[in-house]
């Protein structure tokens, strides 16, 4: 394959990869924010709030992402809500991922030693201060590797938005394969690009894990990392 032919294949795939990246960042940010909100609702002392959050998690995790995307993009227009494909894709991916992250966050928070809560309360910290300065930093360190796994899942599952006509890496590959009739070559290149994207994300999280493993890394932000030992 000469350079000109290679460029003909790589340029549309690069454009599709940039669209995948554009999907990834807002979805990741929104999913973390929504996941935390659902997590706190799930842990609420209010039974109704707790029940609604549990129902949300069970429904989202119990239905396929593809169905959720179809519901948002094709179903919602029947009630007058028409969304662009990209927006529908971000919303669908966000809702799906947030349900899994909510349970991940809940497990991380509940795994923090009870002595940390008691020591923080003894120091007179408010509930918000306890969460920000004591609980979340420790829970964050514990769930960080799993959070990296979900980030990789998000990169790969973003390919499903191709079914609602969102132009991203998978859609770019489909269009290129249809135009060139070189499906084996095209999808091999698509797989290689996904592998590259996942390698970058995985490398970023490995770097983050090493940073978090440095003693006292979060002490400046938290200030109360090992209160139960004080």
Question: What are the key terms here?
Answer:
78% helix; 230 residues; disordered C terminus; MetI-like fold; 9 helices
Describe the structure.
Helices cover 78% and strands 0% of the residues. By secondary structure, the chain is mostly helical. It has one domain: MetI-like (MetI-like fold).
- Find the CATH superfamily: MetI-like
Q: Which residue ranges are poorly predicted, with pLDDT under 50 across at least 5 consecutive positions?
A: 218-230
CATH topological fold name: MetI-like fold
What would you call the shape? flat
Number of helices: 9
Tally of distinct domains: 1
Query: Which strand-content bin applies to the residues?
Result: under 5%
The secondary-structure element order is HHHHHHHHH
What is the count of β-strands? Answer: 0
Q: Could you report the average pLDDT, rounded to the nearest whole number?
A: 87
Q: Give the CATH architecture.
A: Orthogonal Bundle
Distance between the termini: 66 Å
| Structural class estimated from helices and strands | mainly alpha
CATH class: Mainly Alpha
């Amino acid at each position: 394959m000469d350079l000109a032919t290679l460029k003909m294949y790589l340029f549309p795939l690069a454009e599709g990869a940039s669209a995948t990246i554009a999907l990834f960042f807002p979805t990741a940010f929104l999913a973390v924010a929504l996941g935390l909100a659902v997590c706190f609702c799930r842990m609420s002392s209010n039974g109704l709030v707790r029940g609604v959050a549990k129902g949300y998690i069970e429904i989202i995790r119990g239905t396929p992402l593809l169905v959720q995307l179809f519901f948002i993009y094709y179903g919602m227009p029947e009630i007058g809500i028409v969304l662009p494909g990209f927006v529908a894709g971000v919303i669908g991916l966000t809702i799906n991922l947030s349900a899994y992250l909510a349970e991940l966050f809940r497990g991380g928070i509940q795994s923090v030693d009870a002595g940390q809560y008691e020591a923080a309360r003894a120091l007179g910290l408010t509930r918000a201060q306890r969460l920000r300065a004591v609980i979340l930093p420790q829970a964050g360190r514990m769930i960080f590797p799993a959070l990296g796994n979900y980030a990789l899942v998000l990169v790969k599952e973003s390919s499903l938005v191709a079914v609602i006509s969102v132009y991203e890496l998978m859609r770019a590959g489909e269009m290129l394969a249809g135009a060139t009739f070189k499906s084996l070559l095209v999808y091999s290149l698509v797989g290689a690009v996904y592998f590259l994207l996942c390698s970058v994300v995985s490398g970023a999280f490995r770097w983050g894990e090493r940073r978090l493993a440095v003693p006292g890394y979060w002490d400046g932000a938290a200030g109360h990392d090992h209160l139960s030992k004080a």
